[in-house]
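Hey, can you fold this one?
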Amino acid sequence: MDILSLIKKFFSILWKVLGTARNVISNIFFLAVLIFLVAAIFVDTDESLEQNSVLVINPSGTLVEESTAPEPAEAFLKKMGRETSKVDETKAQDVIDAIRRAATDSKIKAMVIDPRDLDGCDTTKIMDIGKAIRDFKETGKPVLAHAMVYTQGQYLLASYADTISLNPLGGVLITGFGMYQTYFKGLLDKTRINFHVFRVGDYKTAVEPFVRDSMSEQARESGREWLGGLWKAYLGEAAKNRSITPSEIVAYVDNIDTKLETVGGDAARLASATKLVDEIKTSAQFDQLLAGKIGQKTENLHLVEFHNYLGMTKVKAHAGKEIVGIIRARGAILPGKQPEKMTGSESIAELFEQARQDPHIVAVVLRLDSPGGSAAASEEIHHEIARTQEAGKPVVVSMGSMAASGAYWIAAGANRIVASPTTLTGSIGIFAAFPTFENTARDLGITSDGIGTTALSDLGNPLRPLSSQSEASIRHLLQFGYDLFISRVANGRRMAPADVEKVAQGRVFLGQDAFERKLVDQLGGLDDAVKTAGSLAGLTVVNSRDLRRELSSPEKFMEALFSTGQTLFTPQSPAISKLLAMVEAQAVILDTFADPNHIYARSLECEASIY
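Sure. Predicted structure:
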């Protein structure tokens, strides 16, 4: 063998050795990182809360009833700094739990409300959090709020603080509530799509976006009533928290232009002059104020965000005790299994089955936060309530921000219904809607022709017109569905069908009005519903536990890994973000029309953006 061959062989062997070594080192490094991550997630650490800590309430995105298990791809992209179209969300109960634990925690000396990342104004959920803040304040621990700008929802949350501080270049933006829907009739006319709509109920305005280009008088009448009630509740709560009158807040909003003129456009000074805020301070000055409240130096302040605090503090399970199980149903009602952001009939059925099989669960609270949806899916969940009651376990419905139409169909079967005064509910009515494209296709030179054995043979073909026989049949089916809805409500509420009719017709009510009309039994929040369920089950000491579907192993890993991760993306402008959110919301609504019979008990007006 010549020298050149030996050299080639040597380097060939060397390359293989280096390649093998590289692979081994890479695998060892990967395993080390994996072990580190698993240990960080699943193994308890020695991390503990420091003395003289301050709890920070900083909810991000929208407040929701139940958080959605993270999808691995979205969670990974978010962690890497690439924001997806998914809107951030905060489980309201997590905020409440953190506040309640902190109230009796000797290491927590104060609370800071930092609402800068909170989106929207979910009055009901903010008031629920506010009750917990009031209880916290009774311990004597100070509560302070600070932000650059307070939007409407952010201000309501901040109003529960003892002291509200505002950046010198900031302001308070309160606008009142408005409901603005998107109407598609013009688009449908231009594209020559026939959107076949059938409804029962004079106030069942959910179908209006498909058949009108503006709001009907019935919708305006109903909307004015519940929007006015919601605004009154907001004003009353914020004014009570600030020891001012609702009329003072109204005057601030209605005369904002002239009031700004009197202070030379200084929005912070105006907010202070009208007693909406107490202090005008920079972030550094606010830290000094906070430190002084708890007798610490600024550099010794230890702030702990509520989601981290929950991870540091553990609550013992009520092993062996009789408890109330809580099932949370959020979003549009759909058939089958659905993620947590939707109310799937099979998903909820599995949770009810879990409650029936668990001997320690003696009653169930179904927390509803839904505008309704599929009539068939609503009826399936209604049956699950009946099955649970037959098993000797009472069911109490707790209504969140909304529990309308199909959600009320579900609720009607409960032993008791508890609603917040600001809950949107009612909307007892149904509709059917589906498009056909025969005109659109004809304009494009596409036609459909053929033969069938019956007059219904082409039913379901989107390129065929809907026959008069089919239309008549759908109306009969719809009337049957409406009569069944009325029957479910009459039986569940122990009312005469004629009395149900008087409050039906698809009309939306606030919880306070629904209570006066006997559509709900009690005004209150989730805690009140749990106490009621415990009382029905004969419990003297009432403990509760949330029931959730069993997460898959990848979901558990991703949830633990990314639940407190920070997003590194550059925020979009508020206007663009809001526009994209509106477009996404409309797309999601259209995507959830999935009833197999195309018959819906749903209240789109409750889903419309409320600003």
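Residues 2 and 8 are 10 Å apart (CA to CA). Let me know if you want another pass with a different chain boundary.
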